[in-house]
Specification:
Order of helices and strands: EHEHEHEHEHEHEHEEHEH
Number of helices: 9
CATH topology of the largest domain: Alpha/beta knot
Distance between the termini: 43 Å
CATH architecture of the largest domain: 3-Layer(aba) Sandwich
Radius of gyration: 20 Å
CATH class of the largest domain: Alpha Beta
Strand content: 15-25%
Number of strands: 10
Structural class: alpha/beta
Largest sheet: 6 strands, parallel
Helix content: 25-40%
Length: 248
């Protein structure tokens, strides 16, 4: 199913952040204002086809009704396989004293959060990020933006079964750590040395019971203030850097 970026400014931002675009659809009665002219100029520079279509066609494709006469169709994201991330992690471990990190996101719902996690994962040298292929945020235009382009440099895989994916990593010598506020252990006291799979949960419900049962260990971030929770992307960043600190 095709995915679209809607509106003049979002389309400009998509091109600025190198979201792979298949084509741009422009309403045949769209006014050639400065923003539209900017879109046309950037599309020519990037060799993205611009197609004039009836405004009614944009109305039928629009999910939010906010296209402003401009929509861009994105190219499908090239997801990797679980085996590709296993291989990348093993290769990384061989070159970095046995350490490797893979991040698993258990049904995140916000594509912006996913992008922020991917950005942090790339920054600490993680070997990949794994997400479910259904009922989960996936890589879209907002993910490119919040990842600051990291999606182009880090393998991202989809799986139909997180538990099976975890079992595969365990067979390769990885330890699986759940990041959960329900743990009795602070993350600083959890041994994150070596090859680790870090599991982050859904924004509202956290890690599912079945996935949590299949983790080897769990840790939480200490909360010293009045607010007793962090955004999942913030939490993931702190957890990843604790992995890096322990393996430095």
């Amino acid at each position: 199913m095709a995915e679209y970026v809607e509106g003049k400014r979002p389309v400009i931002e998509a091109m600025k952040t190198d979201v792979p675009l298949k084509k741009i659809l422009l309403a045949d009665n769209a006014k050639r204002d400065p923003m539209v002219n900017d879109i046309l100029r950037k599309a020519r520079q990037r060799e993205i086809p611009v197609i004039d279509v009836p405004r009614a066609e944009l109305d039928s494709k629009s999910a939010r009704g906010s296209h402003q006469g401009v929509m861009a169709e994105t190219k499908p994201f090239p997801y990797k396989g679980i085996g590709d991330i296993v291989d990348a992690a093993e290769s990384y471990a061989a070159e970095h004293n046995g350490r490797a990190l893979v991040v698993v996101c258990d049904h995140l719902t916000d594509a912006g959060n996913l992008g922020a996690i991917i950005r942090s994962a790339e920054s600490v040298g993680a070997s990949g990020v794994i997400i479910p292929n259904k009922r989960s945020a996936h890589v879209e235009a907002s993910t490119y933006k919040s990842s600051a382009g990291a999606v182009a440099h880090l393998p991202i895989a989809q799986t139909s079964n997180i538990v099976n994916a975890l079992e595969r990593f365990k067979k390769e010598g990885f330890w699986v750590c759940a990041a959960t506020e329900h743990s009795s252990n602070e993350l600083w006291d959890v041994n994150l040395k070596g090859k680790i799979v870090l599991v982050m949960g859904n924004e509202q419900e956290g890690i599912s019971h079945l996935v949590l049962e299949n983790c080897d260990m769990a840790g939480k971030l200490p909360m010293m203030g009045e607010i007793q929770s962090l955004n999942v992307a913030q939490s993931a960043t702190a957890c990843m850097y604790e992995w890096l600190r322990q393996n430095w």
